[in-house]
Design goal:
Helix content is 44%, strand content 9%. It is mainly alpha-helical.
Amino acid sequence: MGPAPVNEYFFAVLDLSEVEAVQIVWRSPLWQQVGCPGVALHGSAPGIRAFQVSEPDAIIKVAARSAFWSIKTATLVALAKHVGVNLSTTTDLFPVLWELVQGVLSTSDQETLEILKLRIGTLRSDPGQSSAELLKMDDAFSLFDKDELSQIKPEKHKAKELAKLAEEFVGGWAQKRSAIELANPGKGKGRKRGKGRGKGSRQQLPPGLLTQKQAKELAPEGGYIWQGRLSGTWQAHYPPFRRCGRSWARCGYRGAVVLCLRYLWECDKRLNPSRECPIENLWDDAAMEEELC
């Protein structure tokens, strides 16, 4: 007889440099009809599809260009160790991501800043977008029984932790941006859109129904606002924050555009703490009253 059998072990050897990936974006059927008509011509059924937007590259570099999606800090620390990037801290998400992205891609500070801006959108779209409502439920707790409370309280704690993480990350991003701008005055400034954006200039919301052109002029640099005519809404978007929409039927035509402008300036304040909203009466209740019943 042969030798007695021994315990067998399986060792997984992973080398991220050997794995390639591509970046993709998900496109709606409407976008496909306009941007990729060949899909419809070949008789494919309508549906949301993934489209490649980058050339194949090592998966670690693809992940770094996407700010490592929503990977948590502990995993990022282990990943940094695996790829040989030395970190100065292992607890805070922003510095860990900053050093890991620069270690993998050798990007400049300005390039790294733009990459990490993507992570702000990821933090804001994490599961539990109703966290704001969840955190306001203290007054309703007396209506729940013990079993229901045992399910709600952990979710409330999780929502608080997510909100705190997002707040700290946005704060770290804004501080880094301010430091870069102070070190490089006049560089990295985008083209200013609209009127009255000079230092100290003040504006007033015009009376009556605001037009698309007027709303665009009142939006902060980096923010977008437009009418959703088919849905009967005003829409606003300030990347990387999620899109905001307000219904004409629910808020009134003027009320909807005022709420969208407020949202854009709130987003701008988060990324540019030193920049003040120049529209003096935007936050007044009377700003919405012309349309609201």
